[in-house]
Amino acid sequence: MIPALLRGFGNLAPRLASAATLAAMLVANAPPPLRAAAISFTGEYDLANFTLVNSEFANGFAVTGPGGLPLVLTGPNDGSGLPGATDLFIAAPAPGLVQFSYEYSTLDPDPGFDYAGYLLDGSFYALADTDGQSGDVAFFVNLGTMFGFRVGTLDNIGEPGVITVTQFSAPESAAAIPEPGTLTLLAFGLVALIASRRLAGGSRRMVFMLAVGLAAGAGIPQALAQSSYAGTNITGQIVLTRVVNLRQAALRLQALGSLAISKETRPRTPPRVLRPNISTILSPLSGLNGAPPMIGLTVVASTGGFGLNALSHRDQRLANQGNQFSIEPPSPSLAVGNGYILEGVNNAIQVYTANGLPVLPAVLASNQVFGLAPAIDWNTGINGPYLTDMRVFFDSDINRWFVIQRTQDNDVLGTPLNTSHLYLAVSASADPTGDYYIYVMDTTNASNPGCPCVADYPQIGSDQYGFHIAVNEFDTATNTRFVDAAILSISKAALSSGAAQPAAYRYLLRMDTGYEFALQPATTPPGARHFLTNGGVAYFASTSAGAIADRLAVWALTNTSSLATPNPAPALASVRVPILPYVVPDIATQKPGPAPYGASFVPPAPGVPWLDGGDSRVQSVSYSGGRLYVTFATSVTDQRGSRRVGGAYVVLSPVLRSTFSAAVLNQGYLLVDGNHVLRPALAVNAAGKGFIVVTLVGPDWYPSAAYIPVDAFNRPSTVFVAAPGELPEDGFTGYSDWGALQVARWGDYNSAVATPDGAVWMVAEYIGNYPRTEYANWNTFVFRVQP
């Protein structure tokens, strides 16, 4: 593949046919006098004196080891799907001979899509395009001749090519000229050296490959067979209904003041996050790729970053003049951009400056965001729409803010109806406090077998062209019978312009493999590239809906650029990748402490509630540098031999060419000995570095906001506590009507996002010592950390 590939890179020099050819060239070409040579990348050849140039679609880099050797040049893998190249070059400070040995490696499963070679006087000379190739090179340079190295790619996916340069020597400017007549001896000595190295060169592999292999556990498991799906154009079903200005709504609310919180007569719990019963199609734990060790993380206090105590249950309950229900869990969600922070909880929002100052003059109920009647009017008892499953999002491509919630409709008395809707607010500008276009979709889907349905647990993400919402459809009659998973893809351009009926496409995914459930769309951090070939690609990930499994489904939605047309036609494919085993977690225990709500029962509750550990559905997916970073919860066993609630992370390299596949680069468990980590959600920046945000809780910790560093190849070892909890969870979901202990709702998720400066902002549910209401005491903590 290399000859065809390189036609656009300048004149090709033929590869040396034999050592004798090289000797003849060295003697016959009358080279300039030789200078004494540097023998590593030090002095005049220090890496700092080289120039590194990345083409438009490239993100390669170079490093050297101690003493200047080896030089490792890693090529592009920016995830765009387009060609790119990384060049590293220098002007020769003196005439003489340049020589080096090289070894080439790549984790790309398909040979020929990445390549490496050297640069000389404006031309590129190919050396390798298949993992494991190695050899030796020598050429002459004059004073000022430009030379160096290149690693390139055809598609910027599947992992980069890497060239490792060893035994490098090149002429230096301040050195004695060797004795005349040594040139011939040098030439034949070099020939002998090259010949001897070539005999063994093909079997040599770089240490980088060993490190990657260790990081990935026992090898790099490949994806299983690909599946494809059919979808439907649903343009016209998502409709613009009104425009709402958030600042004006907050100003009106501020003028009205608040009602007394005592007017509440009953709290209300959002529908429990549901899972289908599919025990008959569980994937057995095959152990194909083994399991990484379950090693407890070291807990330390965070020493840097910025944080603020953000929305609390009291804030949510008092919004809209107190015409709200007490609700837990908060399901905190976060969006950051343009110097603003938008936080949403279930059921309120607030906008902050980057310094943590509230921007809206009052916390808004999400019913106000969508221009709806209050969740309940406590003066009349009349119920409005009951919104749940809060998600917020900032799309840096189009500079727009998103707020999304869903509802099962109810009558004025609060009685559920057999209809449901999805509500989507999209800012009309880059200002998160200004006008929002309000879109509504009827999600009853009555014509779908098994429906009327509710669109449960909506999760959101985006690619270059589409805004994507993934939901689980459950029937409205019982709210427990799973019907299918659905993907809704909507034109970003149409949403941002306030189109009356934006182009939209839907996939309904019946349970077939057990992975058509709780799909999590990927998000791409600012500065990282979307996948741009195949008409644009959006990725999703999902775990098994069963109780135990060792596969992860990766989904690719291609041709998303068609969402900009009246007849969108994306295509969906999926593969299942062997990963570490995971098990639905149990409940989490709490550290005992003051619990005034529990103590208000007669007799008082006999302790503090347990916390819901959730299930093993995917919590977050980030796409950066051609890699997918995924987190989910799982049961773990700590080093004391006790079962705890923990998490897992998986880093994958998706490859979308003639077929779709993915390989695991890194994976591991997240646990703290003797305690629990809940709701792990991550974000990485454009360099692939980031954090996993969790709630740390257990016998040693009140519910605390914490984070864990993560990158593509290293195993985390530390969890940093950003905001230590000060009290136990003491909300109404943790007790029965007569004060018996129950499992309190928690989560249902945390949230993390990256910003253009490479920082990661996170929000976690925790329990601080702040003003509370009678029924609940949850808080959220928003914080920023720079990797």
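(ticket continues) Second input and output from the same batch:
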Amino acid sequence: MCGDQGSDLPRTGVQQQWIEGPGKVITVPRNGFFRRCTVVVEGSLLLCLLPWPGRAPNGSATLENQQQSSGSLRAAQSAVEQGNPEEAIGMLLNYLQTHPEDSRARLALGQAYARVGQIGRAKEEFQTVLKTAPDNYVALAALGEIYERTGQPERAEPLLGHAVKASHGVPQIRMEWAVVLAHLHEYQKAQTALWGLLPPNDREEKIEFYRLKASVALGLGNAVAAASAMEKALILKPDDEELTLATAAAQLQSSNWQRAADLTKPVFAKTHDPAPGMILLEAQLGAGADFQPTLDLLRSNASNTPEELEIRQRLAELLVSHNEFSESIEDFRKAVELDPGRADLLFNLALAQFRGGRLDDALASAQKSMELGDSADLEDLVGDIQEARGDNLAAVKAYQAAVAFAPDEEKYRLSLALELIRHKSFDAAKAVLQQAEGLHLDSWRIHFALGMVEYFTGNEEEASRILLHAAELSPEPPLALKYVGDIQMDRAAGPDPMVLSQLCKYADLHPKEATMQYYCGALLFKRDYASEDKVSMPDILRRLNAAATRLPNDPWPHCELGKAYRWLEQWHAALRESEVCARLDPDSAQAHYRLGQIYHHEGQPERAKQEMSLYEAASKRVADENARRDETMKTFLFTIQKQTPDH
């Protein structure tokens, strides 16, 4: 009785879909168990759930009533199978005139109404049952199914959840509940609903079971589990191209590039369809394989077709996502030719040309886009292009224009300020950032940049204060705290007690943050060394050793440990850490000088002499303060631009 009866609902798949994220390709099956079990309406669970004589859901009946009801249901079913659902409705209505309390017949009538499209009457029948039997899981499930099939999953979900509970977990209802939960992106609940369910016996149902498992896994961010579930589905129907592409898409999202390519290559070779071609292209891009033949074929097949613009856009975006900026230019240019009135296509072409190093072309494309309509984003891009071309004045004017277009948006003011910082116009940058600060009180980026401007102008105390506040606002406090630590390490007067307390407090709250353990330990040592106080040395050594363990390729924890052990006259440990320090930072004059002293103490004059020679050579290479600040500025600009959205 519960075989595959087909469905009026379209099957979902990956045709004409692109890989965009969880649930976008491995779609939730719409024709699941409810669609494959039928009594008087195609696509219903009713007879799979409706018991035969001897038991009624959530109620009881006499043997005579059960026999009459079963006969009426069988007759109604026979009418449906012969293509006469209206006859079934008449039979059930006649029966219910004398047996109005028969919930099984009323449920069957509701399903018959649904069959002929009388959804309102179907709902009335199910709701009538629920008025007298609110835990009737068949009525709950059937009503939930109606809501789900009419595009109201938010109304279907509580009904199906109630049905699952009332039925003590009937597998078909759990499955349908999971489908609805997945449509609502309630993936964790959907996973719970599916927990412990065994795959059904029917092949098509089993395939949809695995597809649902894959969709839920992908929604939870487990691409590997999603790919595994899709592979199980594909085993059941290996010649199904749509299923093959869905499996390839899952493998693509789990970064199993070769498997995705192996699945799609024969399909694309046979069909030349862009969907498998796109998956194959992305797999080849991800694997670092030769993608040019696939790209050329996709371009050739798209030429002079109604879909060429869409395909060219997708090709360009795919190439850009894998940093193939220069290669993407051809597709963006062709898209512009196909629709020259679209400013967004010209913008994307300019951006690709800029990222591909073709600066004059990028500027020309951006200016053409401006003719169609200027914007803050476009002016911001022109600022980037002009900066790369070496025209600082034009860049500043463009960034100012971007701010004028969108005065309330943080990123444009930040672009202008960073351009001014890059060319050491610190007073102007400070004015821009202070104005931005008034508009964006909670912007950690604005405070971060403002703190660095204070540092670049020599106001270290104010810089530390502002950077600490930026760290409080930032989702990643160490980005700003690192600069606070560097500023305090460079202070001739020793670390500021308040700042030191804040850094160590953060380190204590985040014991696995090795960099913060280093700064706290190193600054405590710097403070105590100046005052000749060794009381805190166990804590200092603990922090520095923890940092050295977690940062094995970073010289600074080892360098500080070398200093600390030497002060404590623990010469063997001092030698060990100082050797690591000098090896990891061979240009450090301090490291070679300290190592020379330790070798001298250890009675190794030749090695001491060698280290002193290295010290003298390194001393000549020591950068002056301005050079050090310039290097810090480069690092800061890279860090903040990386953290700026849409930059």
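Agent notes: Residues 33-197 form a domain with the Serine Threonine Protein Phosphatase 5, Tetratricopeptide repeat fold (CATH 1.25.40.10). Residues 1-63 have pLDDT under 50 and may be disordered. Closing as not reproducible unless the customer responds.
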